[in-house]
């Protein structure tokens, strides 16, 4: 990288520095209040900043002044010469404010650094481009993506944060005949930049997990460079890396050297929010689960293998979205990664157990006795009340859009129909079983004969996951 963050050991050092001592030294510099904030961030219990119009306007104005004060910003100036549209784009600038918790000075520094690293990794021709696509990556970086060493999990953690996972060992076959660093840097940049497109992720942040199991020491230099770049890119992009978990089944000097590289690349903010987990693979997963990370979706296996189903689906949806946005550049209400408060349309276990869908089932069961005694108008009011409750905790009713590969927020009318269908479905199950349907028991799929008239009118909307 062109610029080196303040670090503890050298970038390519093979010295096994005690990472715990590094982290402890950083923590000792913090006040009690700052330590509590670190704990809250790592465990995802810190409060989300309320973005009042006054706060946003003041921070954007101050951020512009801070950018003017920065002297060394060649890449930024080059991007401005190419096109000023990105630089004045409010959504783009807001992403940096959110990633720095509305610290205008830090946001200005990150924005300028963003263009420096973007120029180095993607080239000058991509500097002012708003959205990087798979086509922009080229075939070599796309092949790296297909290997699945770096993946975005399909669901957020229990605190609503996006989760990204990286396993360098997946790239070792490529290392035998090629240097994967430049292409992997492109692939990581692309993957993380897709998360910064989503406003919910900007607000909640990202959790990173690095699986360092099964690494070969003969590729040590390449692994250190990969981990360095991963850590730096994760801090430069406007998608706030809230914390980083490093897992290893070995506590060797080699592993310690790799951890030291991560500590070196991390700024003090991320360094104190980095956690290490050593031990058997299942034990590492158990520790990650204690932080609310959905380990059941973890794509890497104990023997160093990788499961590609999620990565293939993610890339398919990205291609759809990018093709759609090429035709329709402006689209409102589209969502890449639903939040835990959203209620989703669809089928399957993943949809059924989505947190927002579980909350909807609990709300329906709460109002079930009252609902069954009411007239049609009364039932409509109860359904409207439940929709309002979901909206009250920032939830949305989303259905998948096949053309764009994204989730689209439905109207209030469709949301109420979703709720009333849940009431009908509960009643059907109660009649069949002779008792009230349990909200914790998956719904058995219906045959086409059992599908009600409401479903026939909307063949693309499948309610079983509600």
Give an account of the 3D structure:
It is a single chain. Strand 8 and strand 9 form a beta hairpin. The chain is globular, with a radius of gyration of 24 Å. It is of the alpha/beta class. The N terminus and C terminus are likely disordered. The strands form 2 sheets. The protein has a 5-stranded mixed beta sheet with strand order 1-2-3-4-5. A 4-stranded mixed beta sheet has the order 6-9-8-7. It contains 21 helices and 9 strands.
Sequence-ordered SSE layout with sheet pairings:
Elements: H1 19-28, H2 32-43, H3 53-69, H4 74-82, H5 85-88, H6 90-99, H7 104-122, H8 134-147, E1 150-152, E2 162-166, H9 172-175, H10 181-195, H11 199-204, E3 206-211, H12 220-236, E4 241-248, H13 253-265, H14 268-271, E5 274-278, H15 281-290, H16 309-327, E6 334-335, E7 343-344, H17 349-352, H18 355-372, H19 376-392, E8 397-401, E9 406-409, H20 412-433, H21 453-457
Helix pairs in contact: 3-7, 4-7, 6-7, 8-10, 10-12, 12-13, 18-19, 18-20, 19-20
